[in-house]
Design goal:
This protein has five helices and 36 strands. With 576 residues, it is mostly beta strands. It comes from Amphiprion ocellaris.
């Protein structure tokens, strides 16, 4: 296996490393995507690859050891003799390297060896060796300034300050803390903690501001709820609010294979709310806008709905229904992609968030990975193992739907991971949105309009409205002032409905006008001529019924419909 890295002297040139069974490579681009060898060959299979948060350092583990190099020129920073490393990470300021390997016990060491190691990245010195048996929440969480570091240990949180891991600066003692999420940004740091319910008591999430961790009165916000086996907590970029997706493994009503999900909102000012969703079904994805002022939820039984909410949890824009299960905001927050991956056909809807106008609708069949380039102009989709072991590869797109670069692994090889090189915030300013497809030699994959199948015998006839299993709901702008009803206040809407109901009742109560005196009401006996003989009238009625049925058969035959044998016999009998 040979590893290759793409280097470029210009500032803000993106890199895209990808690892697979054939090795690790680094692509330079877009828009021009090229490769050239810059590292020495290495026959080991790469287990993991990671960038530092600012993108200046690149690290990987190949089964022989761990290497960290500079992304700019490929020069070595540190190497570590850790052949069993399965996961690795770098602290926000590039001071600490964290490595994790599976926990094992041996005869020489019945307690097992410490499998979570923290190294000083510049000197290579081992700072601390810790035990971390579970892979869940394996990596400590740092604040952006590295003044605070948090670990979950035996259902409690341990806080370290200034990367001093020899002494625990603070602890959060609570009953069975199952999960936590540290806020992004610098000081003051905040932490969201989740405690599952037990013995009929509800589960709850609380927000704390470090170092005030003592008791429930110190909590900035508290939200309790039932029906929660696990939760996912997401801070917005400004660290002002958290979205909590609570889910159960089993839906006791039997309506869904995915269990039940609810979405809760907590703000650091103490406000909490249950986000009301307009359609029943699972919650597939929740995504914060980088502006921290709104979030998008994809939810409901297929075809799923997607709705943008503001910080009051009021709906702002409804994208209607469609085959989707994921939402991705661009790093600048000006574009939103709604996509349907996994068991869906890979349709992507690219939306201008400011105008709520659709930009493009490309398709990426069999995609298992999606991520935005830091420039907010390009995206990558990939088909990776072990989710799919055939047809592995990746594509680099412009958001207008143009495919700029395509790579497919060789037969018998697999692709494991693709990721963009990160850059500090503000490196790429927001650009005006284009609606015309970017030029590309590979073209676009815009989905052509699909039509219902029509048999050859009917294709010369005018098309009729086809019936669908699901009628897709159109997008709807729910912002105040856009639609007339939304612009009215609650009192005005109430009064308007009262007036409309009163007007309708008044019209119904009006008596119907009586017919003129010289005209008598029409009866059944006058509507049809009568022969005076009931038996004859009955025969005439049956004859008219048969003639009407024959006329309908003639119309169906003229429209191209194939008649049944008994219908053909009846039709021929009337002709003779």
């Amino acid at each position: 296996m040979s590893r290759s890295v793409q280097l470029h002297p210009l500032v803000h040139v993106m890199s895209l490393p990808f690892r697979g069974s054939a090795g690790t490579s680094l692509l330079c681009g877009p828009p021009q995507c090229e490769q050239h060898s810059a590292f020495s060959s290495d026959c080991g299979v790469c287990r993991c690859v990671t960038f530092s948060r600012d993108g200046t350092l690149l690290g990987w583990s190949n089964g022989k050891g761990v290497s960290v190099v500079k992304s700019s020129d490929g020069s070595s920073v540190s190497t570590f003799d850790l052949p069993k490393t399965a996961l690795m990470g770098i602290s926000p300021l590039n001071n600490i390297l964290v490595t994790w390997q599976p926990y094992t016990k041996t005869q020489d060491s019945p307690q097992g060896e410490a499998n979570l190691r923290l190294f000083d990245l510049q000197s290579g010195r081992l700072v601390k060796a810790l035990y971390q048996k579970k892979v869940d929440s394996w990596c400590p969480s740092w604040s952006d300034d590295e003044k605070i570091c948090v670990r979950s240990v035996n259902n409690e949180l341990h806080f370290y300050e200034n990367n001093d891991f020899d002494s625990i600066a603070n602890k959060l003692h609570m009953q069975k803390v199952s999960d936590f999420a540290l806020s992004p940004g610098g000081q003051p740091s905040k932490v969201a903690v989740y405690v599952p319910g037990s013995k009929g008591a509800p589960s709850f999430v609380r927000l704390y501001q470090y170092p005030n961790l003592g008791g429930p009165t110190a909590a900035l916000a508290n939200k309790s709820f039932f029906k929660a086996d696990k939760v996912t907590m997401q801070w917005n970029k400004k660290a002002s609010a958290v979205l909590v997706t609570a889910s159960t493994e089993v839906d006791k009503t039997g309506a869904s294979y995915y269990g039940e999900q609810t979405l809760h909102y907590l703000a650091v000012n103490g406000e909490t709310a249950l986000v009301q969703l307009a359609k029943n079904g699972p919650i597939y994805d929740v995504a914060w806008s980088p502006s921290s002022s709104e979030f998008c939820v994809v939810y409901g039984f297929m075809p799923a709905k997607a709705t943008v909410f503001n910080l009051k949890c009021d709906p702002v824009f409804d994208f209607g229904t469609g085959p989707r299960n994921a939402a991705y905001y661009s790093p600048q927050g000006h574009i939103l992609v709604l996509a349907g991956f996994g068991n869906l056909r890979g349709q992507m809807e690219v939306w201008d968030v400011k105008k709520y106008k659709q930009v493009s609708k490309p398709q990426a069949p069999d995609a298992t990975h999606f991520s935005w380039c830091p420039d907010g102009e390009h995206i990558v989709t990939a088909t990776c193992a072990p989710r799919l072991r055939v047809g592995n590869g990746y594509k680099i797109w412009h958001y207008t739907g143009s495919v700029l670069h395509r790579f497919e692994v060789a037969s018998g090889s697999e692709l494991y991971e693709v990721r963009w090189q990160p850059f500090p915030d503000g490196s790429f300013p927001e650009r005006p949105i284009k609606y015309q497809a970017a030029p590309s030699e590979l073209g676009t994959t815009q989905a052509p309009p699909t039509q219902a199948y029509r048999p050859p015998a009917l294709r010369h006839l005018p098309a009729t409205a086809s019936s669908k299993l699901h009628e897709d709901e159109p997008p709807q702008d729910l912002r105040p002032g856009v639609s007339g009803e939304r612009s009215l206040s609650k009192t005005a809407l109430k009064n308007q409905r009262k007036r409309e109901a009163k007007k309708a009742a008044k019209q119904e109560s009006k008596p119907e006008p009586e017919p003129p005196s010289d005209s008598a009401p029409i009866t059944n006996s006058q509507s049809e001529p009568s022969s005076g003989d009931p038996e004859t009238d009955k025969k005439i009625k049956n004859l008219k019924k048969k003639l009407k049925a024959i006329e309908e058969l003639k119309e169906q035959q003229a429209a191209g419909k194939v008649l049944q044998k008994n219908q053909v016999r009846r039709f021929r009998k009337t002709q003779t």
